[in-house]
Design goal:
There is one protein chain. By secondary structure, this protein is of the alpha/beta class. The protein folds into 2 domains: 11-230, Rossmann fold (3-Layer(aba) Sandwich); 236-298, Alpha-Beta Plaits, CATH 3.30.70. Helix content is 33%, strand content 29%. It is built from 11 helices and 14 strands. It has a 6-stranded mixed sheet with strand order 6-7-8-3-9-10. The protein has a 4-stranded antiparallel sheet with strand order 2-1-4-5. Strands 12-13-11-14 form a 4-stranded antiparallel sheet, with helices on one face. Helix 3 (102-112) crosses helix 4 (117-130). The longest helix is centred in the middle third of the chain and has 14 residues, at 117-130. The two termini are 48 Å apart.
Length: 314
């Protein structure tokens, strides 16, 4: 066992001021991510936001043009081999050899990770237990369902007990039952490891992540807890029902900078980026005899907040 093993409370990943140029194109600009042990962080962003480039830099597969990366206090630039040994990575397309059996493949992964020969059998068994593969050791990978192939991919990523696990779109293409199983697995792994989860599936982020990190146009658009994201004040949404309903045009003409969606004949969903319109809606309803039957402010969905944070970023 290494004598410089970090304490359990230490920061496992510190990426500061990461930037990456491709020629004259700045793909990532000044991105910083910090991860603590036992934490699951969602990495989000629209296509072309810089997520893949950021993950490639964090995993040591791409050198940053500027910035620093430390894994458990180990500098990725100065000591890349040692730093990478602390990372487990599942790319979007798992690196599986389908002609191998599960035990054969995980044994190969153990050797590639330089696990001592006497410890390989135990490492394979432990990884299988964590990933629900106890009865799959003799099965050909080609004969497994996609959900079980994803489990094998995660098993290879954790075979060496890394401090940081990076998962890229781990539930793409799975059925609802498989998705629930993989999410439960990710959450359980987050008890002892630090995890970065890159995904486009916002309910997945809500289900398993502690914090969220949103990139857009290569820059950080948001970095905070899930609750803070849900309470983001970029948009105020009001649901209101009228006894004598106006038209959509009546509402948009009398209220500034709002979007109006009509839900049935008398109910409306009013979204504002210019503050809370509740008082103005009540005043207009009295003046125009619209007659408010029901009015409440709703918490914006993660999807609505995500769109609000990214659609106007330059």
């Amino acid at each position: 066992m290494e004598t410089n093993q970090p304490q359990r409370s230490d920061i496992t990943l510190s990426a500061q001021g990461l930037s990456r140029f491709y020629g004259t194109n700045l793909a990532v600009s000044g991105v910083s991510i910090e991860l603590q042990r036992g934490e699951v962080v969602g990495l989000l962003g629209p296509n072309g936001a810089g997520k893949t480039t950021t993950m490639q830099m964090i995993t040591g597969n791409l050198a940053p043009s500027m910035g620093a990366i430390n894994i458990c206090g180990i500098d990725m630039i100065e000591n890349p081999t040692t730093a990478k040994n602390r990372i487990g990575y599942l790319p979007e397309i798992p690196p599986l050899y389908r002609e191998l059996r599960v035990d054969e493949y995980l044994t190969l992964a153990s050797r590639l990770r330089k696990i001592k020969r006497k410890n390989i059998k135990n490492a394979v068994q432990t990884a299988k237990e964590k990933c629900g593969l106890e009865d799959m050791g003799k099965r050909l990978i080609s004969a497994l369902s996609k959900g079980y192939r994803q489990r094998v991919g995660i098993a290879q990523a954790i075979i060496h007990e890394p401090d940081v696990i990076i998962l890229d779109e781990p539930t793409v293409g799975l059925d609802p039952n498989q998705i629930r199983e993989i999410r439960s697995l990710i959450r359980s792994l987050g008890d002892k490891h630090s995890i970065i989860l890159s995904t486009h599936i916002l309910p997945e982020v809500e289900a398993v992540c502690d914090r969220v990190h949103i990139l857009d146009h290569g820059k950080v658009a948001f970095s905070d807890t899930i609750k803070s994201m849900q309470n983001n004040k970029g948009e105020c949404v009001i649901e209101v029902e009228f006894r004598n309903p106006p038209t959509n045009d009546d509402i948009t003409e009398k209220l500034n900078k709002v979007m109006v969606d009509q839900n049935g004949n008398s109910s409306f969903r009013i979204s504002s980026h210019a503050g809370d319109p509740t008082d103005t809606i009540v005043k207009l309803a009295v003046q125009n005899d619209w007659g408010i039957v029901k009015l409440n402010q709703v918490q914006a969905s993660l999807e609505e907040v995500f769109v609000s944070l990214t659609k106007n970023a330059k």
